[in-house]
Amino acid sequence: MISKMKLSLLLDKDIDEKNAVFSDSRREKDLRGAMKTEVIRLLNKDDVTIFDAGNYIKGYRYELYCATKHNKTPHCIVHCLVPTEQAWSWNENRVEDEQYTREVFDGLVMRYEEPNSSNRWDSPMFTVLPEDKPQFESIFEAVYLRKPPPPNQSTQTQPLSSTNFLFELDRTTQEVTATIMSAQKIVGGSDIKIPGVTEPVNLGRTLTLAELTRARRQFISYTKMHPVEDTAKLSTLFVQYLNTTLG
Fold first, then answer.
1. Cα distances (Å, whole numbers) of residue 150 to 65, 66, 69, 146, 173
2. Cβ proximity of 72 and 151 under 8 Å
3. Is 7 exposed, middle or buried (CB count within 10 Å of its CB: 0-12, 13-18, 19+)?
4. Contact assessment for residue 154 and residue 229, using Cβ atoms and an 8 Å cutoff
5. How far is CA 171 from the centre of its chain?
6. pLDDT for 9
7. Burial class of 22 by CB neighbour count within 10 A (0 to 12, 13 to 18, 19+)
8. How do the domains of the chain map onto residue ranges?
9. Would the pTM count as exceeding 0.70?
10. What are the angstrom distances between the C-alpha of 23 and each of 28, 37, 85, 115?
């Protein structure tokens, strides 16, 4: 089995380039997008893909989780839990031309969103401390012996058939966005009720129109690739996406 296993390790090689990329939010976003595209291209039922870069944002991990469900393959998270100052010490002990700058390092620490095993997209999760030996047997079982979760409506590829799927997608997301913007003036970013949706919008903060518009575009782009057969579920899926990525 091991001899047939392909490990696809996606890492930046040039540390100077890393410092430049992580100092520029647009370049960092473009890099994450390129890596996600490559990971999704590599996902299949026969190979093991190791993704060890760029997955420090919970919404990004959620998108990768949806991709594994769509490809009907199991996944797991290996969380390397290292105290910040210990990580900085390791960085200082690298040769000079392989070190992150302090500014870039602190920025990455600030943007890091720690995985939580209670989230389905961060589970199963195996936390490894610097002095620990990784839980190899449990990781093996999670990757090779566990049945993948069944694809749901949001990750099943359906033909863009009838007529007005894109129209309904655009209209529905516009209506949800307008409802949130209006409701925020009264209740802020919590417990916003969307007509026809059981789950409320719970963002814990007030969002700008620019943030909601950006999230709406991202949701539309993803849903175009993974259409749902029942367009009545689009509002619910959009609310779940907002709660996951912006909450």
1. 12, 11, 7, 12, 26
2. yes
3. exposed
4. no
5. 25
6. 41
7. buried
8. 2-145, 165-246
9. no
10. 8, 22, 20, 23
- CATH number of the domain at 2-145, out of 3.40.50.300, 3.40.50.720, 3.40.630.10, 3.90.226.10? 3.40.50.300
The confidence score (pLDDT) of residue 166 equals 83
Tokens of residue 38, six digits: 């490559």
* Other beta carbons within 10 Å of 71: 17
CA angle 41, 42, 44 (to 5 degrees): 105
Cβ atoms of residues 136 and 144 within 8 Å = no
Rounded average pLDDT per 10-residue block, the chain, 247 residues: 37 63 87 85 86 85 88 90 93 90 93 89 92 90 85 49 73 91 81 88 84 89 79 89 82
Spatial distance between the Cα atoms of 8 and 27, rounded to a whole number of angstroms: 23
Are the CB atoms for 9 and 48 separated by under 8 Å? no
Query: Given the structure tokens 């039922």, which residue do they identify?
Result: 45
pLDDT of residue 43: 87
Q: Residues for the chain: how many in total? A: 247
Determine the Cα–Cα distance for residues 152 and 232; give it in Å rounded to an integer. Answer: 15
Q: Specify the amino acid at residue 69.
A: K
Q: What pLDDT does 167 receive?
A: 84
Q: Which helix (H) or strand (E) holds 127?
A: strand 125-128
What's the confidence (pLDDT) of residue 186?
A: 81
Max CA pair span of the chain: 60
